[in-house]
Amino acid sequence: MDAIVKMLEKHQPFFEKISRNIYLQAIKDGFLGCMPIVLTSSIFLLIATLPGVVGITLPQPLIDWCNKLYNFTMGVMGIMVAGTTAKNFTASMNRRMPAGKVLNDGSTMVAAQCSMLLLAVTQFTTKFNGSELSVFDCTSMGTRGLFSAYIAAFITVWVYKFCVSRDLTIKLPKEVPGAIAQNFRDIIPFGGAVIICGIIDVVVRNLMGVPFSELLIKLLSPLFTAAENYPGLILIQAATAFFWFIGVHGPSIVQPGIDPIRLANQAENLQVLLAGGHPAHSLTFNMSLVGEFGGTGATFIVPLLLILFMKSKQLKAVGKASIVPVAFAVNEPLLFGAPMILNPYMLIPFVAAGCVNVSVAKFFIDNVGMNGFSFVVPWATPAPIGIFITTNFQLIALVFVAIIILLDAIIYLPFLKAYDKLLCDQEAERAAELGLESDGAATITASTSAPAVEQTAASVEPTAAAADSKPVADQPEPASDASAKKDVDGLKVLVLCAGAGTSAMLANAIKEGAAQTGENIASSAGAYGQHTAIMDQYDVIVLAPQVRSYYNDMKADTDRLGIKLLAPRGKEYIDLTRDPAGAIKWLRENLD
Q1: How far apart are the C-alpha atoms of 110 and 131, rounded to whole Å?
Q2: b/e per residue, 562-589, with b = 16+ CB within 10 A?
């Protein structure tokens, strides 16, 4: 087991480098920026379709209205993603621009959307009521055009970088207002990006006979086909869990490459379901409800196992603290509290549980008659409920849920018991050292059990955060009593994580602590990648452990804006979420 940990530590810089790749970051953050489209459009679909499942007939005008709202949101998602991806890629590129050279993210956003239309959409003429009409084929404006959206975004930003870096812009006299001058400066890079994508479109259509978006789907279809069999689904899930195990946010690395096909498959499943058929695609957006049942690692049942079957005070406490968050797919308290991240006892079940779940799901879809997932539900929906909804309320889905809960418990329990024995032995030894009564299991107070927790986590804590070797490791030491009295009145704090779930835990603790101590502190939670437009409104930004690997990129922005950046390690972060007054003290101690 020690050899496994050493091997993972040796290669961790490589995995961290992958997670910080600016292209992957732009895709992930751009897609996250459009998640309201996915979630909102699914609500209108549910309104239009689910009443019929229970025999309720809605007025046709209401159904048509809901379908229109879906088509004008989800149906143009590709265009929107082109813009948000370009905007986030521009932010990353601006950190690498020469001094005094800045790319206009508003202009790159619009240029990328225009370029995406050139790559993905076909225009043709048709006759309607005796008149000729110019028509756009909207098929690739939505999720089918996501690859075209990404390519358009990257080409656009690189063209802007090339032009701005070399001053290939139209310059106006300094007397011209800045907003007008900026519009003229953007003409050449805007035109260049659009022309290049237009040329690519002409070449591909003439050589291959298909639009660029169809070419990408055709070239990648063997990969997609392979990914929807058992080995493909297992590989996707294993990679997601493995990256998280070594302290890197796995979904951020794995999912951007498969999101287009997952969404396209789910949309196709919905069409088949509405037509009265059997939705058969298993590689869909909400397959994450199965593979990440309760969060990455399929940890839904783990807190209950800790509470019912473990003897260690540490594991029982972690189980009680994490059972509610894990039910809503926020499993960081479990990952960093047990800990499970880089814990050699947990590697096999952490990777295997999700792989078993997706394999059983495919078997049920292919052989038992369970529907493939058709509706999109929010990521924080409790997994059993989400699976029941998105399979169109099939009773067989409840049987499936019961089976994977049982299988996950069987997979995790032996490893948890082995880890529990180790902790109990350590707690008993510490109790004996302290001269306390012990009957084989540690009978120690919370204050004396804390060192045991630290000792247990010591082997994994230094590597649990992806950026421990970075400047983030040089966090300020705890301040003296005098510095602990620093004024934090009027402080505005923004806490960031991957999906605004973990960050909300600390943000709420800070709010509660401010109320307890009488401090005037405002705290908010957000998702990394969606913070750029609001970060200048805050005095302090805190990165949750799952986004620590972005510390260096974030530091460049916060230093420029004069914002204090903090990045507590995994266990420290979880402790702060449980101690509101301690969170306020921690803020005081870490202010310069």
Answers
A1: 32
A2: ebbbbbbbbbebbbbbeebeebbbbbbb
pLDDT tens digit sequence for 354-407 = 999 999 999 999 999 999 998 878 767 889 999 999 898 899 999 999 999 999
Cα–chain-centroid distance for residue 15?
17
CA distance 289 to 267: 17
Q: Is 39 exposed, middle or buried, given 0-12, 13-18 or 19+ CB atoms closer than 10 A?
A: middle
Place of tokens 């539900």: 377
Give the contacts of 499 (CB within 8 A, at least 6 positions apart): 32, 379, 527
Q: Are 427 and 313 in contact (CB under 8 A)?
A: yes
In the set 34, 163, 197, 497, the catalytic residue is: 497
Whether 46 contacts 375, CB under 8 Å: yes
At residue 526, the 3 state secondary structure works out as strand
* Tokens at 573, concatenated: 């972060």
In 443-490, where does DSSP find H-type helix?
446-457, 461-464
- The neighbour count for residue 272, using CB atoms within 10 Å, is 17
**Calpha distance 584→542 (Å, rounded):** 13
In the numeric block, which tokens belong to residue 171? 């310059």
Rounded-to-integer distance, Cα 289 and Cα 303, Å: 17
Those residues whose C-beta lies under 8 Å from the C-beta of residue 141, and which sit 6 or more positions away, are 75, 76, 77, 78, 79, 117, 120, 121
**Rounded distance between C-alpha atoms, residue 142 and residue 145, angstroms:** 6
How far, in Å, CA of 68 to CA of 62, rounded? 10
Tokens of 27: 């895709």
Tell me which H or E stretch contains 226: helix 212-227
Rg from Cα positions in the chain? 26
Respond yes or no: is residue 34 known to be catalytic: no
Residue 590 near residue 541, CB atoms below 8 Å = no
Q: Model-level pTM greater than 0.90?
A: no
In contact, 181 and 156? CB cutoff 8 Å: no
Cα maximum dimension of the chain: 97
pLDDT of residue 471: 41
- Contacts for 544 with CB less than 8 Å, ≥ 6 apart: 332, 495, 496, 497, 498, 502, 503, 506, 573
The string of pLDDT tens digits covering residues 93-118 is 988 888 778 898 899 999 999 999 99
**Is 292 within 8 Å of 329 (Cβ atoms)?**
yes
Q: What is the number of other CB atoms lying within 10 angstroms of the CB of residue 346?
A: 23
The torsion defined by the Cα of 296, 300, 305 and 307, in degrees rounded to 10, comes to 100
- What pLDDT is stored for residue 465 in this prediction? 35
C-alpha to C-alpha distance for 232 and 218, rounded to whole angstroms: 18
Rounded-to-integer distance, Cα 562 and Cα 540, Å: 9
Per mean pLDDT, which range of 26-30, 311-315, 350-354 is the poorest? 26-30
Nearest one of 30, 120, 106, 112 to 75, comparing CA atoms: 120
Residue 340 clears pLDDT 60, i.e. is over it: yes
**Structure token pair of residue 452:** 């045991």
8 Å CB contact between 96 and 158? no
Distance of alpha carbon 196 from alpha carbon 200, whole angstroms: 6
Contact by Cβ (8 Å): 42, 375 = yes
DSSP string across 236-257: HHHHHHHHHHTTS-HHHHHHHH
Coil, strand, or helix at residue 384?
A: helix
